[in-house]
Amino acid sequence: MSGIINSSIARKFAMALSAFFLMFFLLQHFVINVTSIFPNNGKTFNELSHFMGTNPLIQYVMQPILIFGVVFHFVMGFILEIKNNNARAVKYAKNNGAANSTWMSRNMIWSGGFILVFIVIHFIDFWFPEINTKFIQGDWSGMHNGEFRYFEELKHKFVAPWRVGLYVVGFVFLALHLLHGFNSAFQSVGANNKYTKGLKTFGKLYAILIPLGFAVIAIFHHFNH
Questions:
Q1: What is the separation, in whole angstroms, between the first and last Cα of the chain?
Q2: Cα separations (Å) of 48 from 76, 78, 225?
Q3: Which of 2, 160, 173, 192 has the highest local Cβ count within 10 Å?
């Protein structure tokens, strides 16, 4: 770990790998959540949620890896920011760094910080209650009043307008973070080749469509609860 922290190349490479992992998880999370707006009253969403929530491989292997990946990505992001700031002989305000970099690249630490707060809120809304139900209360049935509870719990969370607004703002920051982070991750692993233009296009589509999709899901359930 000390080698990663002390080496600039290793830090960026490790950051990129954690970013790829989290972007893959984000896509998988979206694919499941979008089924909640299917016109079958949450049947598909309930089935997928129950499988994900009770599968031993996911619960005891993938879930801890995901938590480690989230913590590692944010810790490494803050370390990179501190190292970069210490390495600058002249501040951005003096060397006109804005002329050579985008707003998103200069403010990744702030968008990342807001996303971290957003993740904590999301955990409080969904993950902590799930952990309490399964590991504290010992209820792995996924049932409530004779039916799967996942769809109803999801809809209930988006009744309050303030929570929907908070989630939408969180998704905006996620999009801003991804717009720079996606391509930056590929550059960090040396993906500068004939596919670079295609990767940039795909990155922009991913960074816009995935957060937009999450926002649409939240708004949909707010107006259809």
A1: 47
A2: 32, 35, 20
A3: 173
